[in-house]
Design the sequence.
């Protein structure tokens, strides 16, 4: 048994070495903030901008419309009463099939009242989510929502082996979240 394993040991160690090199080296950042675009999704919700903004920015209610989120725990509040919640931290407990529950940290980066909501999630994607709300010119009671997701991972391993699967995975999550938001607003 040991002789069979030793025969392939050189090949296995070469494969591990290649993965380590691909993980170590990063692609140079194209933008000044070092983020790489994953996906952009757009939708129209049949409610005014302020109401949509209140639903989206209420992190404690993420479980009602964001897929796979089992629960949300408030970790740390850096904002005092009456100020913007930028810097607030939450723990997202996500249900992943076959794996179980995974914990990740959500940090609110920027809030522009009823315009834009930016938050980062410290998960395997190191993602930054930007949700922009625009009033629909045709109807004042509907809102166009544009959800853009970036990643901060720049390693060769991630870019060339994992990124195509990550794009598909995040695309499905955002699409389901937007659909759940539409259903959520219909049930109000």
Sequence:
């Amino acid at each position: 048994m040991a002789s069979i394993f030793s025969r392939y040991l050189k090949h296995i160690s070469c494969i591990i070495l290649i993965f380590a090199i691909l993980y170590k080296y990063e692609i140079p950042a194209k933008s000044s903030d070092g983020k790489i675009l994953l996906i952009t999704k757009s939708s129209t919700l049949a409610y005014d901008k302020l109401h949509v903004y209140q639903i989206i920015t209420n992190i404690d209610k993420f479980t009602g419309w964001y897929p796979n989120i089992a629960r949300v725990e408030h970790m740390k509040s850096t904002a005092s009463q009456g100020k913007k919640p930028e810097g607030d931290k939450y723990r997202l407990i996500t249900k992943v099939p076959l794996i179980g529950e995974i914990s990740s940290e959500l940090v609110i980066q920027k809030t522009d009242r009823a315009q834009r909501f930016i938050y980062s999630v410290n998960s395997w994607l190191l993602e930054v989510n930007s949700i922009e709300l625009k009033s629909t010119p045709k109807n004042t009671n509907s809102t166009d929502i544009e959800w853009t997701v970036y990643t901060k991972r720049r390693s060769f391993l991630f870019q060339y082996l994992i990124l195509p699967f990550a794009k598909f995975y995040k695309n499905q999550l955002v699409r389901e979240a937007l659909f759940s938001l539409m259903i959520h607003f219909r049930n109000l």
Notes: Strands lie at 36-45, 69-76, 89-96, 100-112, 116-122, 127-135, 143-151.
